[in-house]
Amino acid sequence: MIATEKKAPLVLILGAPGAGKGTQAERIAQFLNVPSISTGAIFRQNIKEETELGKRANEFISKGEFVPDSVTNPMVAARLEAPDVDNGCLLDGYPRTVEQAHYLRDALASKGKEIDLVLEIVTNQEEVIARLLKRAEIEHRADDNEEVIRHRMEVYREMTEPMATYYADQDKLVQVDGMGTIDEVWARIEKALLDAGFARN
Ligand code: AMP
Domain of 158: which CATH number? Predict the structure, then answer.
């Protein structure tokens, strides 16, 4: 019998704060039929449950700073050990720096895996700020006031944009226009996934 082993997709989604990556991440995970791993969501859950990790993370998140790698990297490494990741996963919000990308590369390489595709949702900064302020009203997130939002955007440009270049240099980066409705943006992402050779699962 010919082996027809299905490749476990490892996809990463990037976008400035408010680019709508959380929503699109859920759709991508559904499309690929893989778990979605969101570091931001894991931190928020821990903050809600008032765990030690949550308390430590909140010191940084509330200021719009990154949680230190000494906390974030092992947390992700542990999550990647779970059996549900064997069939692939969608990473949302990790890695966010070139250093984290290197850590992830090494963690995956030890299992003979690598990132297949990096989708970056590209947005207009002022429209995104308006979107985030609206979300702040609904969700009461501590990191959604205007000053913190602007700081998070600056951090994205300084720390995460260079990481997009790191993946572009490996021909893994696909940029998607993030302006428009959720469905319009999703249609572009779905096309990018199909173009990259991923089928709906
Ligand atoms: P997100 O939900 O992805 O926007 O993440 C919310 C916040 O969690 C970020 O602004 C950071 O403070 C923190 N965070 C999420 N992912 C990471 C990461 N990979 N490295 C460091 N901090 C992170």
Answer: 3.40.50.300
Choose, from 105, 131, 135, 150, the residue flagged as catalytic.
135
Least Cα distance to 14 among 141, 200, 140, 192 occurs for: 192
- How far away, in angstroms, is 39 Cα from ligand 1 center? 6
Count of domains for the chain: 1
Residue 144 pLDDT more than 80? Answer: no
Residue nearest to atom 6 of ligand 1 (CA): 40
Cβ(76)–Cβ(104) below 8 Å:
yes
Query: What domain range includes position 80?
Result: 10-188
Task: Please indicate, yes or no, if residue 5 is contained in any of the structural domains.
Answer: no
User: For the whole model, what pTM was predicted?
Assistant: 0.90
Q: Which of 39, 63, 139 to mutate to test the pocket of ligand 1 (most atoms within 8 A of CB)?
A: 39
Over range 136-164, report the average pLDDT. Answer: 87
Band the pLDDT of 2: cuts 50, 70, 90. very low
